[in-house]
Amino acid sequence: MTKERDYCVQVGLKSHLMIPLKVMGSVAGAIGFGSFRSYRAWPDDLVQNLRLVGDIFTNALAGKRADEALRAGEQSLRQTREGLRRLAAKLLHAQEEERRRIAREMHDDWTQRLALLGIDMAKLERHLGAPEKALPLLRTMQEQLVGLSEDVHALSRQLHPSILDDLGLVEALRSECASFSRRERIAVVYRPEVVPIGLPKEVALCVYRVAQEALRNIGKHAAVNEAWVTLAATGSELLLRVQDKGVGFDPADVRSQPGLGLSSMEERVRLVQANLSVTSALGRGTTVEVRVPLARSNP
Questions:
Q1: Cα separation of 35 and 13, whole Å?
Q2: What is the pTM for the complete model shown?
């Protein structure tokens, strides 16, 4: 207190009152009142009024700090969201690259080796003649090898559709619909219309993956024996529509607890600046639509 008293004498301060400013129980500052002309007392009523003035400053200070914290939190939030989006894009790209590598390896190695085994089995059958026990066993093994080869080929196509690179989106979807029909015993009416040539690879892959996921959901949940897939260019948009008339679902339940399939579709379409809509109702089927703006994706 000696230093403070000496300072007051030095500057000529006769009387002084300091009101602490508290924010959330912590002292954030102080407001001072002083008299240089003469000594004066500080009555309790006056002190109380000055405390009210201090409370006004405290509230203003707290509001300012809250606004600053909110603004800082909103930049931070934007940066976090952008970071997550970039990470999701990188993860999807890495996933597709790994799928491509595995699919090529399966197609170029496993499928060919299985096919050669099937050919060798057929040759062995001819060389053995017609023993009663050997021939039925060989035929069974040959059928199993053929089935295994087809399954490996189908898995390779699901991992990465090489036909998408070779023949384009229209034929890749035609092949996927046919494969789905054989596998799930669900007829798919495929209606491709005029589609621009030379779609960007990321757009074609996005549309293909959404169609693949939508068909997979039909096979798992729709309880139908028929579905429809439409691919068309309407004006400045590329449209994909996958539709069924099955059991449907309550969209509110999906929004509250979205699965990985829907999240993956949403992220894929966002990366190509497209729009995804999923409409459904209990007992009235489901429609999945993707609209890709061609003006931006294929100038």
A1: 6
A2: 0.54
